[in-house]
TrEMBL record:
Gene3D superfamilies: Electron Transport, Fmn-binding Protein, Chain A. GO terms for molecular function: FMN binding; oxidoreductase activity, acting on the CH-NH group of donors, NAD or NADP as acceptor. Transmembrane segments: none annotated. It comes from the Bacteria. Residues 18-173 form the Flavin reductase like domain. InterPro entries: Flavin_Rdtase-like_dom, Split_barrel_FMN-bd. SMART domains: Flavin_Reduct. This is Flavin reductase like domain protein.
């Protein structure tokens, strides 16, 4: 089948998210200007550069009590910093709990029963005990096509890795099994690895 997104699709549910999979989940922690922590998962997330290391996440919705965006973007606009926490399979329920829509100024760490820790290079909370966390300084926020669609870019200024994730000098994802987003309400866990060598290596 073929369809043009501008014309809609003939299926009961939008297949776009199911096609672009699996997607890593950026569990984005911020705080507002009053110091209230915020935590929310974003599945439009990825690394975008090595030197300096940079990441991005996209926010595609809006809250009635924010200015045409969500709390994460509003907080980053105001403070210039955020932290990306990596979600392991064991944290799926806490991650899901933090995705609920709460009024502005609500501490999602507390609502989801998550312990916050302080970052080292930025004034922002992070998820304590997560397999890895990337402390980021905002480089730019880009508004893209569509209502309330923003891409947030940040330079990684500090990296936390849980000690048990480092095996033989490598960050080993099999020690915690990353949670990934699929389409609809589906998720998957990364368990199986294989290695490929480029032809010119």
């Amino acid at each position: 089948m073929f369809y043009r997104p501008a014309d809609g699709h003939p299926l009961p549910h939008n297949p776009f998210n199911a096609i672009v999979t699996p997607r890593p989940i950026g569990w984005i922690s911020t705080q507002d200007v009053d110091g209230v922590p915020n935590l929310a998962p974003y599945s439009f997330f990825n690394g975008v550069a090595y030197v300096p290391p940079q990441v991005m996440f996209a926010s595609t919705g809006v809250k009635d009590d924010q200015d045409n965006t969500k709390d994460s973007v509003a907080n980053i606009r105001a403070t210039g910093v955020f932290c990306v926490n990596i979600v392991e399979a064991a944290a799926r329920d806490a991650m899901n709990a933090s995705s609920a829509t709460f009024p502005k100024g609500t501490d999602e760490f507390a609502k989801a029963g998550i312990t916050a820790a302080r970052c080292e290079t930025i004034d922002c909370p992070r998820v304590d005990g997560t397999p890895a966390a990337l402390e980021c300084r905002l480089t730019q926020i880009v508004q893209i096509e569509g209502a309330s669609n923003y891409v947030v870019f940040g330079e990684v200024t500090g990296v936390h890795m849980r000690d048990d994730t480092i095996v033989d000098g490598r960050f080993d994802i099999t020690t915690y099994q990353p949670l990934s987003r699929l389409g609809y309400r589906d998720y998957t866990v990364v368990k199986d690895l294989f290695e490929l060598t480029r032809p010119d290596d």
